[in-house]
Design brief:
- This protein is an all-alpha fold.
- It has one domain.
- 73% of the residues lie in helices and 0% in strands.
- The chain contains five helices and no strands.
- Helix 1 runs antiparallel to helix 2, helix 1 packs antiparallel against helix 5 and helix 2 crosses helix 4.
- It starts with a helix and ends with a helix.
Length: 115
């Protein structure tokens, strides 16, 4: 791994903030430009979660790490044709806050162990 896991964790938080900004601009189920922007950023976020260490992710079993990775594959490869915007919005609303909290906790614990 060329970068530290902390760089990927910070990237996840940056992308999550960008997704929130995209959501604040309008209804992505009604605006294809917002929807496309959200999809691209979700793909980036999911890829970054794959680069966090497995032993660290194991400390947070409530986060569906495998499902996040699988969702990334669906986004990238579009296995089932057009992805439903409502489903994407639901995934973001239901799972993004917990992921943000988890990554913030990982970073805080790491910062605390370096003091």
């Amino acid at each position: 791994m060329s970068k530290s896991w902390q760089a990927y964790a910070l990237h996840i938080l940056d992308v999550a903030a960008k997704i929130k900004r995209i959501q604040s601009r309008g209804d992505l189920t009604q605006d294809d430009v917002l929807y496309d922007a959200a999809l691209r950023n979700l793909q980036t976020l999911c890829e970054a979660t794959q680069l966090l260490p497995d032993n660290l992710k194991a400390q947070f079993p409530t986060i569906p790490w495998r499902e996040i990775s699988g969702f990334r594959n669906i986004l990238v490869h579009n296995y089932l044709g057009d992805i439903d915007p409502l489903t994407v919005q639901t995934v973001m609303n239901a799972h993004l806050p917990a992921l943000i909290d988890c990554v913030q906790t990982m970073l805080a614990a790491d910062a605390g162990s370096n003091n």
